[in-house]
Design a protein that fits this description.
By secondary structure, the chain is an all-alpha fold. It contains 15 helices and no strands. It folds into 2 domains: 50 residues; 239 residues, Orthogonal Bundle (MetI-like fold), CATH 1.10.3720.10. The radius of gyration is 25 Å and the shape is flat. 27% of the residues are buried.
Length: 309
């Protein structure tokens, strides 16, 4: 290879690197490839399986038959599926509402100046940073029917007697509330950090002008802080809601969908049908059922953010 050829190729490569689109694509390509392999391939496979009658017993030796939307139609006639679908919305929306309230309180506390503030920040981030299995097992012990620290503290305060201790995970009326509280506990530090970051981005002169005009704490909160931070908080809520809709670890480790299926969500029901029962087609149909609904919610949220901005 001649020197002129090498110089020409080097010049072409240098001009290629000068293009912002090429450099951006080069840096983004590993992340895109990772997403395609880790998420795209299983997602396409789940859609393909949901349109067939494949089971675990048919893998590698029997060709599945194409059944179209039959699996989805049968789901709509299943009362367990309808209950799991309803529970999914209740748990996801309920936990995010509690997380927003607690996160806003946390953000207001972290904006104040007090001693040991750094240590407090570290402690409040532990629920979000703790491995989910370890945190949920701790909650399972706290909900224990005999050794529950919650019940013992309520008894110490005189709110419970020995004969009426609640069985948090065994009572159909209390188990959904227990699940929502654990979801909210896991999510609220993330929401609080987002609200804190959004509050710190508010121009200081706006806050000072409101104080000069005589605006109190609640007026500043509802008429200045919340409207200005709403676009940023909405993005965080979109991520938190999607994670809450698709999470199964909290419920599976605490109740496995019981008692009498009152805490089953689509993720646990899909695992139960697709993996434990071996009906891969039905489990795949359950797992992808919420995809268009979640996609619509995300699009609506992003369009709302664009209008606010």
């Amino acid at each position: 290879m001649s020197a002129n050829t090498r110089i020409t190729r080097s010049a072409r490569f240098a001009r290629l690197l000068d293009r912002p689109g090429f450099v951006a694509g080069m840096f983004l390509s590993p992340a895109v490839l990772y997403m395609l392999l880790l998420l795209g391939v299983p997602f396409v496979g789940a859609i393909a399986f949901s349109l067939t009658d494949i089971t675990i017993g048919m893998l590698f030796h029997t060709m599945p038959s194409f059944v179209g939307l039959e699996n989805f139609a049968s789901l709509l006639d299943d009362p367990d599926f309808r209950q799991a679908l309803r529970n999914t919305f209740v748990f996801a929306i309920g936990s995010q509402m509690v997380a927003v309230i607690l996160g806003n309180i946390l953000a207001q506390i972290l904006m104040a100046e007090f001693r040991f503030k750094t240590l407090f920040r570290i402690l409040v981030l532990l629920p979000w940073a703790t491995p989910i299995a370890l945190g949920v097992l701790s909650w399972k012990w706290m909900y224990d029917s005999i050794y529950s620290i919650i019940n013992w503290n309520l008894r110490f305060l005189g709110l419970l007697t020995d004969g009426n201790w609640p069985i948090w995970l065994g009572n159909p009326d209390l188990a959904p509330l227990a699940i929502i509280l654990v979801h909210a506990w896991k999510s609220f530090p993330f929401v609080g950090v987002i609200i804190l970051a959004a509050n710190t981005s508010i121009p200081r002169n706006v806050i000072d002008a409101a104080k000069v005009d005589g605006a109190g704490f609640f007026r500043q909160l509802f008429q200045i802080n919340l409207p200005l931070v709403l676009p940023i908080v909405t993005v965080g809520l979109v991520f938190g809601t999607v994670f809450a809709f698709t999470d199964m670890s909290v419920i599976w480790l605490l109740t496995r969908g019981g008692p009498i299926n009152v805490t089953h969500v689509l993720a646990t029901l899909a695992y139960q049908n697709g993996i434990l029962a071996g009906d891969i087609a039905r489990g795949s149909a359950i797992s992808v059922f919420l995809v268009p609904i979640l996609g619509l919610l995300v699009v609506m949220a992003l369009r709302g953010i664009r209008r606010q901005v």
